[in-house]
Fold these 2 entries.
Entry 1:
Amino acid sequence: MSTAKRVVYVEGNVDGTIGGSYFSLLFLASGLDRSRFEPLVVFAADNSLRPRFEERGVRTMVRPPPSPVVLRAPLLSLLAKALNFLIGAVIEPLQLAALLRRERIDLVHLNNSITRNHSWMIAARLAGVPCITHERGINPRFKERDRRLAKGLRAVVCISSAVRENFLKLGLGHLRLFTIHNGLDPDEMRVTRPPEDIRRELGVSPSARLIGIVGNIKPWKGQEVVIRAAAQLREEFPELVCLLIGDTSPDDAAYRVKINNMVDELGLHDHVIVTGFRTDVANYVNALEIQIHASVLPEPFGRVLLEAMSLGKPLVASNDGAVPEIVVHGETGFLFEPGNFEALAERLRVLLRDPALAAAFGRKGRERLEAQFSIKHNVQETERLYQQLLAN
């Protein structure tokens, strides 16, 4: 009989849009020492990355949260609120607790935030199973419900010092906070097509100067800033082409329309390409001269930075949140004031004029990734935390 501890991971994203939390979970769950830990991943919605978990021997299941009760009549709104509370705080947790017992789970690891997966937190307490959560965001505030339920967590894993500092700033320093940076195995960024193929696919000339940003199309990710910077550069670099590589969730459809309109208004049809979702992101990053990070709000981590570093790409990134923990200004890339498209354009201009400097930044970035942000280190630190919790 196996003596491995059974860990259930819960990804609470309900729209199925693939983001950094999914990949972080994939690398962690598949990298565990299976002689000590046996993973089960529960998704709130099916998604395109799920088969990759299964391919790596990680069992998965999809368990959608219950749909909220909606009663539109004004006099019935209080009844709907009461029913939703009953479902979320009692009925759903009881069902989830039964699942935990049936699967003989030893530890519940929530993959999102103290603001999410509340029914699972309650279920873990009902089942007598220790529960921890990742915190992958820098939230401006936490609701009272978040704060109360977080008290029952055995640990909150912060993906950066910036995330941890935010907890302290908001008066949650009493929680058991552990900082474990996200990690990446450089071999995960497999290049399977030469840059020439990508250029032909996109209809870009062999002489084009390719730069780009990777990430879901969202207002806070700053694609608007990148487009305005590209407009500043096109006169000096008429062959400049900027790729926006990423998916758009239904909630962000209006922002995608805004991006398209901005490209029209600035006359950038030949200089900006929105690729949409790509399963082979490594091939597109590999085709770039420079990768941009342009978040206008504090970035909790920035997995795309590691992906660029793994392929030796120089970075120009927003100087906020966890980014300065990853990008060393003047050594592995340049930092710029968030939202300042003119500053972004100037940093890009320096690297476009000096390919040798860009290449040196890329080499240093790869070295930093291997020394500081390997997935091996991430998994080992997480397993050490598990052992500590399960021994108590």
Entry 2:
Amino acid sequence: MSGIFITFEGIDGCGKTTQLGMLAALLAAHSIPHIVTREPGGTKIGNKIRQIVLDNSNQNLASTTELLLYAADRAQHVCEELLPALADNKIVLCDRYTDSTVAYQSYGRNLPKNLIDQLNNIATNGLTPDLTLLFDLEVEQAEHRMSSNNSERNKDRLENEQRDFHQRVRQAYLNLAKEFPQRFIIISTAESQENVFQKVCRFVIPKIQTIYPNFSK
């Protein structure tokens, strides 16, 4: 038996992190073994990388440097956190993974996708998600949410990118969902958090029940 690897993807401000937290709380309430993690920053080493790539003072960070930092974070994350948790039959809930790199660095930064695919393969050692939840939202709505919900928090370096950058990232995600329909589930987050979570449960619970059959909402 092995665990289940579920990734949460979407543009900044789409609400994916909130939904991940709600699912984690449900798993905890039912004593389902799980971990909550993120990229970048799922390890102590990764947190140092996260500080570099998201720091607004690093405006001169080259796109290729940014890509390689994300790959380094992922390699450490897979080795230190993801593979051990899955081997221990845990449910892994990960806020961003390889699809984020394709969306942000290929479509957003216009770096070659074949290069990114190669780096992702090296960094992950072939580990792919069992299920990817793509939380989709119009860029303008996401911007409004971030402004309303985080008025006291400064936006990070990527959140501060221009609207057309985030438009390209959103389109990249939608393209990836078409390319990998067996793995991706698109969930609109234009509704209330509870309605969105109902949809999350509809897709996630049957997957988790394959190894924890007594799990239910």
